[in-house]
Amino acid sequence: MRLLPNVCSDSLVIEVAEPRIDAAVAIEFKEKMRDLIKDAPSRVVLDLSQVTFLDSSGLGAVVAVMKLLAPERRLELAALTPTVEKVFRLTRMDSVFVIHTAVSDVQRTAI
Amino acid sequence: MGPVRPRTSGKALEMSGSWTDLQTTETIVLGSALSGVSELNLWFDALAARRSLSARIAHDVKLCLNEAVTNILLHGFDGDPGGQITVSVDLVPAGATAVIRDNGPAFDPLAGPAFVPAEDIASAEIGGLGIRLMQETTDRINYRRDGEINELTLYFGPR
């Protein structure tokens, strides 16, 4: 599970450099994210542009990371591929997360 | 139970053409290890490519198979080395049918509480999302207990 952090303005952008977040990697994803967000600023953005498959275990892992950050900090999402966007939409989780169309949009909406 | 090689069964052998072209149902047998999910995905990706499945239906079928198999492995077998799952996928021009059979304890995934969308992150539940995805990406789901076997049938219409 390769997660590539990058400080971008006032945010920490973490690129998921894997095609899948599913049951096989969900625990590893949560553990690596926990380490990466330890000293993160108030906004963490997950770049999902390379993720083409997300199941409910992967979605649950993303929600768990959001819960770890709340309430002082928050997790936002960027660059969802169509299949990943569909999973968020069908579970109505798209209304829980701030979702940016592209990573470049994150800088434009800096807090 | 060690790794099990995928098995394939066919139909319509009386018709002209090669056996491979005519078969519509393909089957894989998985053990109780979580690595079965990766084995399942490799098998299904190859099947989808071989049968020129549209990206949309391929994703929906794969997602549902992942949800069903992961749930059985994590919650049904709970480490039981005697667990076995048989996944059969029948691809037809009008869509696809997937049948998942396992020898775990009786479990009807359709019997759970109705889906309630989360209002915010504090109220967001991590459980129950898998069956929601299955219900939203299939045309119909049937569950039945056949002796000591759970049988879940997923129907996917044209899309």
Low-confidence stretches of chain A: none
The CATH class assignment of chain B is Alpha Beta
Main-sheet strand order of chain B equals 1-2-3-4-6-5
- Span between termini of chain A: 29 Å
**Do you know the CATH topology of chain B?**
Heat Shock Protein 90
Counting DSSP H or I runs of 4 or more residues, the number of helices of chain A is 4
- What is the number of beta strands of chain B? 6
The average pLDDT value of chain B, as a whole number, equals: 85
| CA-based gyration radius of chain B | 16 Å
Broad shape of chain A: globular
CATH architecture identity of chain B: 2-Layer Sandwich
Give the CA-based shape of chain B. globular
Major sheet summary line of chain A? 5 strands, mixed
Write down the secondary-structure element order of chain A.
EEEHEEHEHEH
How big a fraction of the residues of chain B is strand? 15-25%
Protein architecture, described:
- Chain A is an alpha/beta fold and 111 residues long.
- Helices cover 35% and strands 25% of the residues of chain A.
- Chain A is globular.
- With 159 residues, chain B is of the alpha+beta class.
- Chain B has one domain: Heat Shock Protein 90.
- Chain B contains four helices and six strands, in the order βαβααββαββ.
- In chain B, β3 and β4 form a beta hairpin.
- The longest helix of chain B is centred in the middle third of the chain and has 23 residues.
- Chain B starts with 6 loop residues before the first strand and ends with a strand.
